[in-house]
Fold this protein.
Amino acid sequence: MSNSDEEKTCAQCRHFRRHYVCQGGRRYIPLDRGHCAAPRLRDKDADTPACGRFSGRPEEKKAEKADG
């Protein structure tokens, strides 16, 4: 199965905001939960199938910021 054939999930969407938990007062651990920010807040699991509002994350911009 190629990347284009894979089912899209909330974790791959630009509107998904992952939740974290603080461990030991210094380290943040990502959870498999978060919320959707489009157009209103809704709790979501990271592996929930994407809805009609899905919009992919711009991975190229993150790489450019790291280089510059």
